[in-house]
Amino acid sequence: MLEPRNNNEFPEIPAKRYFTIGEVSDLCDVKSHVLRYWEQEFPQLNPIKRRGNRRYYQRHDVITIRQIRGLLYEQGFTIGGARQRLEDAAANETEKPSENLQLIQTMRHELEELLATLSAEN
To answer: What is the pTM of this model?
Structure first.
């Protein structure tokens, strides 16, 4: 997953289950109206909505918002570019287990060949 570049500049995320839009705004240094706009542009942001359409964000939402903020404000990505970057990062995370499995299978095959070679020499 993408890591925020300057995580030290943000306050620590409290150990809570849900955060209001005002709390997330303070935690991520982004205005509330910008957060509402980002919800429309980034499918990764999907806060829980309860009575009166009040938004409740979870910890992973706050982390995602910090990543989006970093991509847009610090790295200069466009909305579309940031969206693509987040999608690519998510796709890479889902591909890693299959890559690891292939690596393990290759290593096992090489070790079996080495064992066969050593056994043949004895």
So the answer is: 0.69
